[in-house]
Amino acid sequence: MPLIIPFALWTFLLSLLKPGYSNYSVDQCNWKGSGLSQEPGSVEQIFLHCAEGDVEWLYPVGALRLSLSPRLPSGPASSATRGNFGRITACIKPAETFRGAQIYLEQGAELQLLVRDQQREEEEEEGAEPKVHCFSRLAGERVALFIQSTLHRDISRRIAAFKYDLRGEWSSGALLPQQAERACRPCNDTEVLMAVCTSDFVVRGHIRSVIHDRERQESVVNVGTTKIYRQKYMLFHPVGKYGKSFGEVRTFLKCGVKQGVGSFIFTGHVHFGEAWLGCAPRYKDFKRIYEAAKETHENQCEIESD
């Protein structure tokens, strides 16, 4: 059961912290700072405006209050997606070396503990990877984290670092396990057209194999590509002298993905460096949908088709 701090206690804790201002390096997506230049008992206000990024707090002292808000989608399909946010799904993933602080989620008038200081040490003893913590918000609601340093005699080896990832309904992929049902159902024509315009990756290819990871409750689809339309990161790497590229795409185990023959359009989004599957119609079905939308001027972006 998650630890909840009542509003009265939270207010008392915040009253003990003095507003802090520093010369930490800040950009719109990432933040890195040191507690050595922060006054003891102070709280540093941080505002980031990206869908994903990194936070690294060296030698934690005092506290941080982090407000996260993704920028609205840009590009050819932005006008169609701006009014369709609904909910935002936010996830944080502590670094392997996370130490020296605890992360709380602002939950209305309360604080909910997400990451404990000793949590990574316990996970390492069990041989487990850092646990990803996800939660959802209405698009108009604020996503705020309160990061409180913990007392240690030696802070020289304490680094509270984590990655964050924010997604909304403009994304074609699902992130929370409870969203698996939505992620597993086939995309309709409108969703397919939106996916090829807004996804982090859009490739044409075939399924080489499917590996089921029951421990992580994920399926890993090995994809061989025949054409890469777009990839935000180098997810599909060329191998050999024939120019073909290969990569892995993940989805939920309960989706029951199986190896199938034929050519597909794979779309989706990157989540903490991993490609997650969104819409994946057969190429012949995508071509039919795209050509029909092109004739009626309903496609949101241009993409090459054979």
Any overview of this molecule?
- The protein is α+β, with helices and mostly antiparallel strands and 306 residues long.
- The protein is 16% helix and 41% strand.
- The protein has six helices and 19 strands.
- It has a seven-stranded mixed beta sheet with strand order 1-10-9-12-7-5-2.
- Strand 18 and strand 19 form a beta hairpin.
- The chain is elongated, with a radius of gyration of 22 Å.
- Residues 6-12, 14-25, 75-85 and 170-174 have low confidence and may be disordered.
Helix and strand sequence: EHEEEEEEHEEEHEEEHHEEEEEEH
Mean pLDDT across every amino acid position? 80
Give the spatial strand order of the biggest sheet.
1-10-9-12-7-5-2
Shape: elongated
Radius of gyration: 22 Å
pLDDT < 50 runs, ≥5 residues = 6-12, 14-25, 75-85, 170-174
Beta-strand portion reads 35-45%
Q: Can you summarize the main beta sheet?
A: 7 strands, mixed
Terminal-residue CA separation: 53 Å
Roughly how much helix do the residues carry, as a percent range? 10-25%
| Number of E strands | 19
List the total number of helices: 6
* Strand-pairing-aware structural class: alpha+beta
The gist of it:
The protein has 306 residues and is an alpha+beta fold. It is 16% helix and 41% strand.
Secondary structure layout plus pairing:
Elements: E1 4-5, H1 7-15, E2 18-20, E3 25-26, E4 31-34, E5 42-48, E6 52-58, E7 63-68, H2 78-81, E8 87-94, E9 101-107, E10 110-115, H3 119-125, E11 133-138, E12 143-149, E13 159-168, H4 180-184, H5 189-198, E14 201-213, E15 218-231, E16 237-238, E17 245-252, E18 264-271, E19 274-277, H6 283-295
Parallel strand pairs: 2-5, 4-6, 5-7
Antiparallel strand pairs: 1-10, 3-4, 6-13, 7-12, 8-11, 8-13, 9-10, 9-12, 14-15, 14-18, 15-17, 16-17, 18-19
